[in-house]
């Protein structure tokens, strides 16, 4: 598909969108802009509108709760919740390692404790143990009212970063 065909299909789609769908489409466009302008390093971070904050052996990520991340019950999709936990713990893992090393998720366990509702979610990732080959992390995800919606642990395998 060339750019002219893409423009035509996009204009046809825009003409068919309801007002709510128009708002959702704008969220997708903003995500593409954030990735294109290198405000976000990944498409998933751009789509989630993830905002990170460093702490001592801790990393905090906050995302808005938009229609793009909700399931058919109008609560945050469990897979998005797991992605938020994995992303926060993975970012912390990378921050704790020297530049020539990276970390990849080798195991993730998540327990859901409440529905993801409210205007935003905050994930707090912490280091439990740092070994020579693995990192053990935990994260807690809270909704706007402070209620815990999920608790997760993960193991990250330490690898050499590709040059």
Give the SSE layout.
Elements: H1 3-16, H2 19-36, H3 43-48, E1 51-55, E2 58-64, H4 78-96, E3 101-112, E4 120-130, E5 134-143, E6 148-160
Antiparallel strand pairs: 1-2, 2-4, 3-6, 4-5, 5-6
Word description of this protein:
It comes from Metabacillus sediminis. This protein has 4 helices and 6 strands, in the order H-H-H-E-E-H-E-E-E-E. It is globular and about 55 Å long. It has a 6-stranded antiparallel beta sheet, covered by helices on one side. It is of the alpha+beta class and 163 residues long. The chain is 35% helix and 36% strand. It has 2 domains: 1-39; 47-160, Hotdog Thioesterase (Thiol Ester Dehydrase, Chain A, Roll), CATH 3.10.129.
Report, as a whole number of angstroms, the end-to-end distance.
33 Å
Average pLDDT value?
Answer: 93
- Class of secondary structure makeup: alpha+beta
The appropriate CATH architecture of the largest domain is: Roll
Spatial ordering of strands, largest sheet: 1-2-4-5-6-3
Q: Output the CATH homologous superfamily of the largest domain.
A: Hotdog Thioesterase
- Note poorly predicted spans: none
What fraction, in percent, of the residue positions are helical? Answer: 25-40%
- Evaluate the radius of gyration: 18 Å
Instruction: Tell how many strands the DSSP assignment holds.
Output: 6
Number of helices: 4
Order of SSEs:
HHHEEHEEEE
The biggest sheet, with number of strands, parallel, antiparallel or mixed sense and barrel status, is: 6 strands, antiparallel
Strand content: 35-45%
**Overall morphology:** globular
CATH fold group of the largest domain? Thiol Ester Dehydrase, Chain A
- For the record, the count of structural domains works out to 2
Instruction: Name the CATH class of the largest domain.
Output: Alpha Beta
């Amino acid at each position: 598909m060339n750019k002219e065909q893409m423009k035509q299909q996009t204009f046809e789609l825009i003409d068919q969108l309801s007002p709510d769908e128009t708002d959702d489409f704008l969220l997708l466009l903003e995500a593409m802009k954030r990735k294109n302008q290198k405000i976000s390093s990944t498409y998933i971070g751009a789509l989630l509108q993830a905002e990170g904050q460093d702490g001592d052996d801790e990393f905090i990520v906050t995302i808005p709760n938009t229609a793009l991340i909700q399931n058919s019950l109008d609560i945050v999709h469990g897979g998005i919740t797991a992605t938020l936990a994995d992303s926060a713990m993975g970012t912390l893992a990378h921050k704790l390692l020297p530049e020539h090393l990276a970390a990849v998720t080798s195991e993730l366990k998540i327990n859901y404790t409440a529905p993801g509702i409210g205007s935003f979610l905050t994930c707090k990732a912490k280091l439990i143990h740092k070994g020579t080959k693995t990192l053990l992390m935990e994260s807690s995800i809270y909704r706007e009212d402070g209620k815990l919606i999920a608790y997760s642990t993960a193991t990250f395998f330490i690898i050499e970063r590709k040059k």
